[in-house]
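Pilot study result, target chain (346 residues):
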Amino acid sequence: MFYLIPLILSFLLAVGFTPLIKKFAEIQNIFDIPFVEKRKIHTRKIPQLGGMAIFFSFFLTIYFLLPTGWFVDSQINLDIIRAFIVSSAILMIGGFFDDKYNFKPLYQIIFPIVAATIIIIAGIRITNITNPGGGTLAIIPILSIPLTFLWLMGMMYTTKFLDGLDGLTTGITTIGAIIIFIVSLYWNSPYSAVSVLSLALIGTCLGFLIYNWHPAKIFLGEGGSVLTGFLLGVLAIISGSKIATTLLVMGIPILDVLWVIIRRTFWEKKMPFKADRKHLHFRLLDIGFSQKKAVLLLYFSSILFGVTSLFLHTKGKIVALSILGALMIIIAIVIVNLYKRKEVSS
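Predicted structure:
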């Protein structure tokens, strides 16, 4: 029953904050305008800045729960919580100005870099990985820092690129947080910080999803799209470096991002972080899926691999990641062929 407190509190805060943020975005005239870019599929202007609702709901939940003692554990202290808040606030500030003034991709990346750097300085790092032969392998500090930085940047840009359909990023983040919460129950003490943080993220995303589900009344915006990946990435580290588990949950979106970056960089000779309509979720729309069906399909894939990861040891997870990679290649080939057929027939 105690676990219901952070879940319900964060949910109610998100339900309450989101309309206020929506109104604020309207007053500031911060909208996502349709038809400005080919990749935009909505037909009316939608308020942005939704990430602020997630930010305030998530961290206010933590603030209200600090007196309970749930955050007094060996891995998470108040200094780390403060760094978590400050780095997330930087993403929100950058997101606000980007949504308002439409920064170039080169400037957008500054805020995620600063946020990831603050977290690393605060001591949140990937310090070990599970050994397939048993036990764990320690990572030397000189490798731990760049590995953590790449992990956080990768997670932020995965959710950023994923944010193309109503409710997609928010829902996938919720699934990831649920899996991390379940994992935390295996090794952590009851009502620990990891469990509470995971539940706070679940409740926050579910509360926001009410307004973000198709047809969306508000979008995450630039800040929200990177904040969700950032929160999930940090939780994956502090939950005991459950990187492989999180990779399985986010597997298809991550592989999609990697493929798009490689394609843009080496084949098209373009800026790798410039958005386009060639992501998997847009391809699903192109071959006839509705927004809701495409989103539900991607939800299902994350749930399938996330739940599978709960029953696998390290070797099994490596096999599952290999299967996921092969599955992604097959899906890409099938979708491209279907897309070409549709173009020919039309």
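One observation from the pilot: Residues 222 and 286 are 24 Å apart (CA to CA). A full batch analysis is planned for the follow-on phase.
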